[in-house]
Amino acid sequence: MTEYYTGWRKSSHSEPNGNCVEAGRASDGTIGVRDTRARLTAPPLAFTPAEWRTILTELRAR
């Protein structure tokens, strides 16, 4: 999987104090998820589009 993501978007559930989760997309469709504070020190988690849909479906069901 690629490590180059663009179009990072902050979660609407992020806290205003800087505790943020962001998601970006790679050219191959891979979704990267990162902690905004750790973006320079830790790589994003990488999910296939199918995995990402499953995660979102599960989260929305709660």
Quick tags:
alpha+beta; 4-stranded antiparallel sheet; 29% strand; flat
How would you explain this protein's 3D organization?
With 62 residues, the protein is of the alpha+beta class. It has one domain. 19% of the residues lie in helices and 29% in strands. The protein is built from one helix and four strands. The protein has one helix at residues 49-60; strands at 6-10, 21-25, 31-35, 45-47. The chain has a four-stranded antiparallel sheet with strand order 1-2-3-4. Strand 2 and strand 3 form a beta hairpin. The termini are far apart. Residues 1-26 are annotated as: Disordered. InterPro entries: DUF397. This is DUF397 domain-containing protein. Residues 7-60 form the DUF397 domain.
SSE blueprint and pairings:
Elements: E1 6-10, E2 21-25, E3 31-35, E4 45-47, H1 49-60
Antiparallel strand pairs: 1-2, 2-3, 3-4
* Overall shape: flat
Mean pLDDT: 88
Spans of at least 5 consecutive residues with low confidence: none
Give the number of DSSP strands.
4
What is the domain tally? Answer: 1
Compute the CA-based radius of gyration: 12 Å
Spatial order of strands in the largest sheet: 1-2-3-4
How would you characterize the largest beta sheet? 4 strands, antiparallel
Total number of helices: 1
Q: Ends: how far apart?
A: 29 Å
Strand content: 25-35%
Structural class: alpha+beta
- N to C succession of SSEs: EEEEH
Helix content bin? 10-25%
